[in-house]
Design goal:
Blueprint (H helix, E strand, L loop, with lengths): L2 H14 L9 H12 L4 E2 H8 L3 H13 L3 E8 L2 E8 L1 H26 L1
Antiparallel strand pairs: 1-3, 2-3
Length: 116
């Protein structure tokens, strides 16, 4: 290992502590990513079609992210029916940035390790 790799490894562990470890699951990461891309929000059925996982799994993860303040559940009335859709919050965007920055460090480390 060279000095640069040691620094990157140190930074990976430091940045890891800045991420909410309860948020960093694949499903929650994908939910935050999708909601950051679709700025007008997505309905439950759209998320289900994208993720292809059970209703219960999606619902529990959406509930968790809502409680953490990372996403909002919004209601819209359409044809006398209440439709719910989800949007990412500023806190959610910040958490997503932390995760992505941490992943970039790992990618950088792997790139340097593979170049030797």
């Amino acid at each position: 290992m060279n000095f640069n790799q040691d620094e990157i490894i140190k930074e990976v562990f430091e940045k890891k502590n800045q991420i909410n470890s309860n948020t960093f699951t694949i499903t929650r990461f994908i939910l935050l990513t999708l909601l950051s891309y679709f700025i007008d929000g997505l309905q439950f059925r759209e998320l289900k079609a994208s993720l292809k996982i059970s209703d219960g799994n999606i619902a529990s993860n959406l509930l968790y992210l809502t409680k953490m303040g990372y996403i909002n559940k919004n209601a819209l009335e359409f044809d006398n029916k209440k439709l719910h859709y989800y949007t990412i919050t500023e806190n959610g965007k910040e958490e997503l940035k932390k995760i992505l920055n941490w992943m970039e460090l790992i990618k950088k480390l792997l790139g340097e390790t593979n170049d030797e």
